[in-house]
Amino acid sequence: MEAPESDTDLSGNVAVVTGASRRIGRATALRLARAGADVVLHGHRARDEVEAVAAEVEAIGRRALVVMADITDEAAVEGMFRRIEAEAGGVDILVNNAAIRGEKPLLEMSLAEWRQTMAVIVDGTFLCSREALRSMVARGGGSIVNIGGVTAHIGAARRAHVATAKAALGGLTRTLAVEFAPHGVRVNCIVPGSIGGRRSATAGAVPQMSKGSEDILLGREGTVEEVAHVIASFCLPGAGYVTGQTVHVNGGVYMN
């Protein structure tokens, strides 16, 4: 990692964004590229969509690397990061954004459906973080941002699996922050609220939460760009004294 020119400059950094094909993942990749980072764009099945984002990153003037992998598969994740090490030189920033957000009433939910959601959100974050941390420790530091979910804090019908998995990321964030602070690695969690725009097929419907849109103090849904701005800010050198935190981007629907 090269020394940045300013507290808002990510030049010389390599950032990995999982689930980078659309919405928050795509917006975050572009925001990091605009700050000067080269971006590794992860996807699972939608290669054409990931490659489209890669073209946008390259149009900004930064290098893009597309990696396709099932992040619930340990060997696949290890292979993905070996490729990143070989082709990009290592990892300075990791944004754990990949998730599935299906809906199912609890009494109809199978153990397989429960485990699939936990695998993508929790196991995937663990596996990607573990491999990225190997690189960050060797490079003398880095930043991990986990993407939580507001339903983990206020509840939602038909989302027991998603809310539980997202809640687990808070504990993982704090423990990694403690363990890797001596190595110069910061770990934080950003929690989006109700975010507007076209939703992906795996996102499900807008969840029935214990608080509705009428409770959003700012009176509107957020945008993916607003979330991406906050995510990227936690990766900047200027945020070097922030770690182990959970920060909500939700227009005031939940305040901690």
Automatic annotation (TrEMBL):
It holds the Pfam family adh_short_C2. Coiled coil: none annotated. It is an enzyme of class 1 (oxidoreductase). GO terms for molecular function: 3-oxoacyl-[acyl-carrier-protein] reductase (NADPH) activity. InterPro entries: NAD(P)-bd_dom_sf, SDR, SDR_fam. Keywords: Oxidoreductase. Its EC number is 1.1.1.100. It comes from the Bacteria. Belongs to the short-chain dehydrogenases/reductases (SDR) family. This is 3-oxoacyl-[acyl-carrier protein] reductase.
